[in-house]
Amino acid sequence: MHPKLAADEDGLARLLEEVRRHAAGALGRLGERAVVPAVEAPEPERLPEEGAGLAGALAAFADRWEPALSASAGPRYLGFVTGGTTPAALAGDWMTGVWDQNPVSSLDGAGQELERETVGWLRELFGLSDGHHGAFVGGATVSNTVGLAIAREWLGERAGVSPAEDGAGALGDVRVLSGAAHSSVPKALAVLGLGRRALTGVPTAAGREAVDPAALERALREADGPCVVVANAGTVNTGDFDDLRAVAALRDRYPFWLHVDAAFGGFAALSPAHAHLVAGLDAADSICVDLHKWLNVPYGSALQLTRRPDLQASVFRNAAAYLGPLGDAPDLVHLTPENSRRLRALAAWFTLRAYGRDGHREIVDRCTACARALGDAVEAVPGLRLLAPVRLNVVCFTLADRPDAERLAALADRVAGEAFLTPTVHDGVPALRAAFSNWRTGEADVRRVAAALREAVPHV
Ligand SMILES: *Cc1c(COP(=O)(O)O)cnc(C)c1O
């Protein structure tokens, strides 16, 4: 064995203690460090011929890279929809590396059973029936891609062909209808050979990002045949929701596959005050929920659900003599784009086991309260105005006069040490948005963000 590797093996217990201490220190400073530090990334180094051992690697990481990383795990990183990592999720992530399972085959240990138990818990968390089968994938983009791959196979079933066998060309033109689809949807369509142009925008209700059901009905009538509808439960700009019950009801009259992108909006189901926003979610044929956002597990985790695991296996089956059979409950290797992968479910399992439905409901409720509080604060800052009501956890606002992208970028820049906000355009108006989805965030953080905005506005 290489001497550096052998030394690390000998000193493993002590080294892990050193890593633990370093991690606790970093997390302890998370709330106070600059949210996006004004530090350039270091110049890339050449590959070391001589290794430094674990302790040396940790020291080099702490020295060169840590100062330039953002506090995205902290309480005032409000850009995109980011989430954090609960203490138990962090422990679960560590255990994932410790056990290094590849939970995709029944020929192996119980890894995939742990994943199935976790999928069952999440189904309950979101109030879904056991008609939905699920698996873990790397993020909502992959989850949307898998959902749309199953939709593609469903269109094939209707047309008497199999796109998975014969290629997407066997389908002819495909229409994917959506009000305010996330950018990952056209990306998924490009990957699936359906093409970005398959996405047909449907008008939304006035001033909203929610699809207008009457307009959707017109589009379905015009489509004159089976198509795909992507309904949105939580849009990134304003946190708006399609009326899922109204959308699903259209299936009585028109044939379509209903995919719901509930990447972060699905968490509305946890909160009695917001659950109505996702009423009807269970009726979907496939559903995407991101877990590395509002479940607060580390990056690389989303849930993908469908009522048609048989069609899913038609697409993703990975027949090989050494892998398990397909059967009625196919091994996970036959259901997702990756074959080998980490035991992603474990971080989710840990946080659900540690805090339960109640603990995660509290996180959702606190985040929505923070969003409401920031919305109120923004309205009270001279020179700012809200662009949309705060429906869940997203605050979309802009400058009251001359809201151009440059001035908004300057505003975001001025507050970047204190809070991270991301730009957008809503209803033709450039804007900034703050999304709350981190378990660490509280009212004191909202006051700090509001104070930073109030201070910065006169300077842009
Ligand atoms: C974040 C998000 C996605 C994409 O998720 P990734 O985890 O970045 O792949 C898709 N849809 C919605 C609504 C999202 O918020």
TrEMBL record:
Belongs to the group II decarboxylase family. The keyword tRNA processing does not apply. Its cofactor is pyridoxal 5'-phosphate. It comes from the Bacteria. SUPFAM superfamilies: PLP-dependent transferases. The keyword Coiled coil does not apply. It comes from Actinomadura sediminis. Keywords: Decarboxylase, Lyase, Pyridoxal phosphate. This is Pyridoxal phosphate-dependent decarboxylase family protein. InterPro entries: Aromatic_deC, PyrdxlP-dep_de-COase, PyrdxlP-dep_Trfase, PyrdxlP-dep_Trfase_major, PyrdxlP-dep_Trfase_small.
